Write a sequence for this structure.
């Protein structure tokens, strides 16, 4: 499978997604959204849209968002599979007809996500472990696009994941792809976000201390989710 990763900043990359791609023998290319350069649709099977500190609806500060959304909109119509992660999930939700909005508060730390009833029969999320502690780092969220099925939720954020088009379009508000090293870099770049007080904002030290405990289970869940996405493409 040919995977293309869209980055928004250097310090939020594919990490365990790249590890999975190498383990499965897939090819993986990358580009930065800022360049507005993307592969042709006959050259890619899965687009992974990564996170970033910017707001998904702030076009004034990030004018390249318009080109990225046009590309993803065409990718949807061309039958390309898309996985959106955090900011990427918000962008994908908007492209599919949803709305990006501010969350009731920031969610930064390792917190569990719970499966919805719809997840039980979804081709991508049916085996997702209920109550898995995953990585969060966001202050925004999204309303679900029409036809999207809510898959996972947390106490702080009702819409943590969605599935659309039979599992071809998948959004994750959280992070399964983090490694301890990648998280350390993210904290170094965006540590000021911890100044946001709230019940769902932990400390940098606590996040790093919990990484070794949580990364292995997140890796397993990510591999299973990506295997499901790959299987759906093979069935087309």
């Amino acid at each position: 499978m040919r995977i293309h990763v869209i980055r928004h900043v250097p310090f939020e990359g594919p990490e365990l997604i790249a590890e999975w791609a190498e383990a499965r023998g897939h090819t993986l290319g990358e580009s930065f959204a800022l360049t507005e350069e993307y592969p042709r649709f006959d050259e890619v099977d899965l687009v992974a849209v990564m996170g970033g500190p910017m707001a998904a609806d702030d076009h004034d500060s990030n004018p390249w968002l318009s080109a990225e959304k046009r590309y993803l909109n065409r990718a949807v119509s061309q039958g390309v599979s898309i996985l959106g992660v955090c900011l990427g999930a918000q962008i994908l939700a908007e492209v599919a007809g949803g709305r990006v909005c501010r969350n009731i508060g920031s969610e930064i730390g390792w917190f569990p996500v719970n499966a919805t009833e719809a997840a039980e029969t979804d081709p991508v999320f049916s085996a997702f472990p209920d109550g898995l502690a995953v990585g969060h780092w966001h202050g925004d969220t999204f309303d679900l696009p029409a036809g999207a099925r809510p898959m996972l939720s947390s106490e702080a954020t009702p819409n943590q994941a969605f599935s659309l088009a039979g599992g071809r379009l998948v959004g994750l508000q959280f992070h399964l792809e983090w490694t301890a090293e990648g998280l350390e870099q993210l904290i170094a770049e965006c540590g000021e976000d911890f100044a946001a007080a709230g019940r769902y904002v932990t400390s940098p030290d606590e996040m790093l201390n919990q990484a070794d405990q949580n990364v292995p289970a997140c890796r397993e869940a990510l591999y299973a989710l990506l295997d499901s996405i790959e299987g759906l493409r093979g069935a087309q």
Observations:
- The first helix runs from residue 16 to 24.
- The chain has one domain: 2-235.
- Strands lie at 2-7, 27-32, 46-49, 81-85, 99-115, 132-143, 149-153, 161-164, 169-172.
